[in-house]
Specification:
With 223 residues, the chain is of the alpha/beta class. The protein has helices at residues 15-18, 21-27, 74-85, 105-111, 130-135, 151-162, 210-222, and strands at residues 2-7, 41-46, 60-61, 71-72, 92-102, 116-120, 138-141, 191-194, 197-200. This is tRNA (guanine-N(1)-)-methyltransferase.
Length: 223
């Protein structure tokens, strides 16, 4: 089992997604688990507000040197991570940052072999830079754009990594890389009528000729 530890000011913003559908079943939170089936992943939240030690109990402070916005102060974050790491050796620590290493499928596969991953979600103008330095956390970015916080990157990483945890998808064939898949898919009805116009499923998918179907999928995937 892999255990994700999320450091976030807003756990309520992402907890419903992580507790639903495939990820929820992987934790034993949704669906009907099979007899004696053990959870495949675990997700825990740590709110820095619960670890604030400053006089005014604020987790955000004005940045030194000036500038817009507020910065998350380091002590609360470090204490939250310290609690997450308690009793866990060799945990991977990830610090979401715009200048981090680009997250991709290769990284997802590597992380799927870990037992514990700590995900630090920034907000506002970010987290005091000393947090990443002290923790020696790996800086990771999920794309060439800026979000309002690290919560969506955390969910993206957990979703992508969990797919490579044995048993989460149910069938190994569900992994895109392990099957001949097309980004274009169809289901019933065979003929869809929408606003007076008919849209048909490609004939090859109805032919029953598996060789032709696989060839079609490959051709569509290469376009």
């Amino acid at each position: 089992m892999i255990h994700f530890h999320i450091i976030t000011l807003f756990p309520e913003s992402i907890e419903p997604y992580l507790s639903s559908s495939i990820l929820g079943r992987a934790q034993g939170k949704s669906g009907k688990p099979k007899k004696n089936e053990k959870p495949k992943i675990c997700v825990s939240f740590y709110d820095p507000k619960d670890f604030v030690v400053t006089k005014h109990k604020r987790v955000d402070q004005r940045p030194y040197g000036g500038g817009p916005g507020m910065v998350l102060e380091p002590t609360a974050i470090l204490k939250a991570v310290e609690k997450a790491l308690r009793g866990k050796k060799g945990a991977t620590k990830i610090f979401f940052a715009t200048d981090g290493v680009q997250f991709d499928e290769r990284m997802a596969k590597q992380l799927a072999r870990k037992k514990a991953i700590v995900l630090i979600c920034g907000r506002y103008e970010g987290v005091d830079a000393r947090v990443q330095k002290i923790l020696k956390a790996k800086k990771v970015s999920v794309g060439p754009y800026v979000l309002t916080g690290g919560e969506l990157p955390a969910v993206t990483l957990i979703d992508a990594v969990s797919r490579f945890v044995p048993g989460v998808l149910g069938k190994a064939e569900s992994l895109e890389a392990s099957r001949v898949a097309s980004p274009v898919t169809y289901t019933r009805p065979e003929v869809l009528t929408w606003k007076g116009k008919k849209y048909r499923v490609p004939k090859v998918l109805l032919s029953g000729n598996h060789a032709d179907i696989e060839s079609w999928k490959i051709s569509v995937k290469r376009r």
